[in-house]
Amino acid sequence: GSFYEKCDFETDPCKALQELSLQSGWIRRNGRSGMGPPYSDHSGNESAYFLSLSSETWSSSAALKTNVFLPTAEEHTCQITFHYWISQMSGTLSVGLQKLPEDTITNIWQVSGELQDQWKEHTITVNSTEKYEV
């Protein structure tokens, strides 16, 4: 059967993300926070929460890491759909795959310098014979 979990950040960081993620330069906010755009989430809701890079990390990088997922198989594929907003010309958003217990992270998708200041949606499909984090 299909199983999916929605991360909307309304109450707290979602179960799929490691607890440590928010200590690495991400803040949970909404469009009314007074921090500038975006002024709503991807559905136009001003009071809905999303994660945003704190101003201290604008010049560096910050990661969001999932918890460990089990290996995928033909009947168990993994799709992750996310909404993102890039407001800085120099910003790059990349998605990496780390198979456990390896240390290396393989880049599986990235975007930079495309249409700014609008919400976009992207779906990645993960295939891994080992346990993995994204």
TrEMBL record:
Record field: transmembrane: none
Pfam families, A to Z: MAM
Assigned GO CC terms: membrane
UniProt-listed SMART domains: MAM
Residues in MAM domain copies: 5-134
Name of protein: MAM domain-containing protein
Native organism: Calypte anna
